[in-house]
Write a structure and sequence with these properties.
Layout: E1 5-7, E2 24-34, E3 39-53, E4 56-63, H1 72-90, E5 99-104, E6 111-112, E7 117-121, H2 132-147, E8 155-157, H3 167-181, H4 187-203, H5 218-223, H6 228-244, H7 246-260, E9 263-265, H8 267-278, H9 283-289, E10 297-304, E11 310-318, E12 329-339, E13 342-353, E14 357-359, E15 371-376, E16 383-384, H10 388-397, H11 404-419, H12 425-435, H13 442-459, E17 505-512, E18 515-523, E19 526-529, E20 537-539, E21 587-590, E22 595-597, E23 607-609, E24 611-612, E25 619-620
Parallel strand pairs: 4-5, 5-7, 8-9, 10-16
Antiparallel strand pairs: 1-2, 2-3, 3-4, 6-7, 10-11, 11-14, 12-13, 12-15, 17-18, 19-20, 21-22, 21-23, 24-25
Length: 636
């Protein structure tokens, strides 16, 4: 939806606002101007209102017809928690006089951070019971838009190449506020399962770009509202907070707001304040993290002695050939061991990793754990690998890890190894089937189930050796695992079950689109070959047994001179009786989808003749391109 939002009623017409903290409903109207549809909707609204403090009124608007479903009390509670957290951490009070949240009909985005009047899609008005993942998503969205009051409205980017100063910061700030100020304490687990998975996928596509992208015009802006700006940008900010220290990070952000309030900024403006509070030089860090694309891979290297003690522990880092940037990382390394039926973390260290190989002397002489987890606590933005022993432990005992974030990291690491063809897809399926039943996080469940479905459909080879997704040996481009229903008699890997009344099945050569070298099980009584993407041979309703001689089709009735010429459907051959005096072989037009007999004097496409084959009942049609066309019986 594009356009502007207006409140049609005046404040003078409303009842006077209460001075005390409370809740009340005021009628209002919302005019929604649709530039695209050239029409205006007038929607009756109800407004819930309360005062957070004497100077900051809060409002929630919704349609009157949906008011019974709008849980305004809960929305006020999460909003107050967000206000308290942001004002405390940012050190700058809320900069506007009011804060209204409007759930707008036909809104074409999730939400929009208009200063003091945030608009949301009505999808967040729950009309029935929803999953925990959806409930948590709404809280994150509410706090995301509230964070924009500082990142985006109080201080605004100078140009679109610094879009991350708005969206990445709001993504990171809303997640940390949700985890630390609301009951959704596992928000970082959700962030890892959904946002980071999205970011890793987007960052490995040809369309990837740096977080700080080069924006030349407004068309470039539209393509940058993606997983790089939102998900990767938020992940990189979490890494930056770990790199400089979380307290130093919030101090630098506070100084940034104070210095640049009500003005426009660029990337160096924020980095300068963070360098002052942390003492770290961030110019090189910014070039590697914010101004280059691609994702690194971190691999543990563990050498042990005969007694199982670590002699050497190192972290190897690789980068894709197209984006060969080796980046500095601040990350945690966790050791997990089986203890009384649980897989618990027994050791944890945080280290700085930089270069192709980084030694970790802090872990020397410790007993090798059952599972080594790089990037424990999910501080870094990088794909991680599980060594052979750790993967075997995860397959058997992943559900025994009590920390949902650690479980999510193992789920993600196993999936990345499978997707990158560094681990068996069967092992990943065993991991999921053996442990997913005890997973507690709704978003992790949804993401993992989608991934295991993809692994089963695309990566696992059947026992008979057929490559997944390849054409079935019987043609039609269909996998053995998804035969078409028997009633349609389509081409499938196994012939339909035969009944006593069914005609015998014999293989014939056929051509379907560009695929020419296939065999299909078809009935000898079949008369029609349909050449569409969902094609099938359908037996004649009047034919229940093979015929010894070809059956003639009725002659097309003569048409009047003034009647319009009717074209035959492309998917059914059009047959005519052969005029007297013509040779016995038919003249055909070879099309993409069928071999259509026509008279030799017809116009384009060019005509070719069918040459008789060894069988008296069949003939082979050759298309001009040289590919065989569907075999059919010649007309009489």
């Amino acid at each position: 939806m594009e356009g502007r939002l207006e409140l049609a009623d005046s404040r003078a017409d409303r009842p006077r606002r209460p001075r005390h903290l409370g809740l009340r409903a005021d009628p209002a109207h919302l005019l929604v101007h649709h530039r695209d549809h050239r029409r205006t909707l007038r929607v009756d609204l109800l407004r819930a209102h309360e005062r957070r403090w004497p100077h900051d009124p809060l409002g929630v608007y919704g349609r009157k017809s949906l008011w019974q479903h709008l849980d305004a009390d809960y929305i006020f509670e999460k909003t107050r928690q967000g206000f308290t957290y942001f004002e405390d951490k940012f050190g700058v009070p809320y900069p506007f006089a009011k804060y209204d949240q409007l759930f707008v009909p036909e809104f074409n985005a999730g939400a929009m951070e208009n200063a003091g009047a945030v608009t949301f899609t009505e999808t967040y008005v729950f009309r029935s019971k929803v999953t925990d993942a959806v409930k948590e998503r709404r809280v994150v969205t509410i706090l995301h838009e509230l964070a924009h009051m500082w990142f985006g409205d109080l201080v605004t980017m100078k140009w679109w190449n610094d879009l991350w100063l708005n969206e990445s910061f709001a993504e990171w700030a809303s997640t940390i506020a949700t985890a630390e100020a609301t009951e959704w304490t596992e928000a970082w687990t959700t962030f890892n399962a959904m946002e980071k998975t999205w970011a890793y996928r987007q960052d490995q596509l040809p369309s990837t770009h740096p977080v700080v992208a080069e924006i030349n015009d407004l068309e470039d802006v539209q393509v940058n509202f993606d997983g790089i700006t939102y998900a990767k940008g938020g992940s990189v900010l979490k890494q930056l907070a770990a790199w400089v220290g979380i307290e130093e990070f919030f101090a630098g952000v506070s100084a940034y707001f104070t210095k640049h309030a009500w003005s426009n900024t660029e990337l160096p403006d924020l980095l300068a304040e963070l360098e002052k509070t942390s003492g770290r030089e961030l110019g090189t860090w910014s070039k590697k993290w914010l101004e280059t694309a691609g994702v690194n891979t971190l691999i543990p290297s563990v050498d042990t002695d005969a007694e199982g003690r670590i002699r050497r522990f190192a972290v190897m880092q690789t980068a894709p050939a197209d984006y060969p940037t080796i980046r500095p990382h601040r990350l945690g390394i966790g050791f997990y061991n089986l203890d009384g039926g649980a897989l618990v973390r027994t050791d944890y260290v945080e280290v700085d990793v930089d270069g192709d190989l980084t030694e970790v002397p802090e872990l020397k002489d410790r007993k090798r754990p059952d599972l080594v987890l790089l990037n424990d606590n999910d501080l870094a933005y990088a794909k991680i690998r599980l060594d052979e022993q750790s993967l075997a432990t995860a397959i058997a005992h992943l559900a025994d890890i009590t920390d949902p974030l650690a479980r999510s990291l193992v789920w993600g690491a196993a999936w990345d190894q499978t997707r990158d063809a560094e681990a068996s897809a069967s092992d990943y399926i065993d991991l999921v089937l053996g442990n997913i039943g005890r997973e507690t996080e709704s978003t992790t469940l949804r993401t993992t189930l989608a991934q295991v479905l993809q692994a089963a459909n695309l990566y696992v080879a059947p026992k008979d050796g057929t490559r997944p997704g390849a054409e079935s040996p019987m043609g039609c481009g269909r996998s053995r695992r998804t035969p078409r229903p028997e009633a349609t008699r389509s081409c499938s890997s196994s012939p339909p079950s035969r009944t006593r009344s069914s005609p015998p099945l014999t293989p014939r050569p056929c051509a379907h689109s560009a695929t020419a070298r296939t065999l299909c099980q078809v009935s000898t009584s079949t008369r029609t070959c349909r050449g569409s993407s969902s094609w099938a041979w359908r037996p004649s309703a009047r034919s229940t047994a093979p015929r010894s001689t070809p059956r003639s089709l009725p002659t097309t009735p003569p048409r009047a001179a003034s009647s319009p010429r009717r074209r035959a459907p492309r998917s059914r051959p059009w047959r005519r009786r052969r005029p007297p005096g013509r040779p016995s072989s038919t003249t055909t037009i070879c099309r993409t989808r069928s071999c259509v007999p026509r008279r030799s004097g017809s116009s384009t496409p060019p005509a070719v003749r069918c040459s008789p084959s060894s069988s008296p009942r069949t003939s082979t049609c050759c298309c001009p391109s040289g590919r065989p066309a569907p075999t059919r019986s010649p007309s009489t």
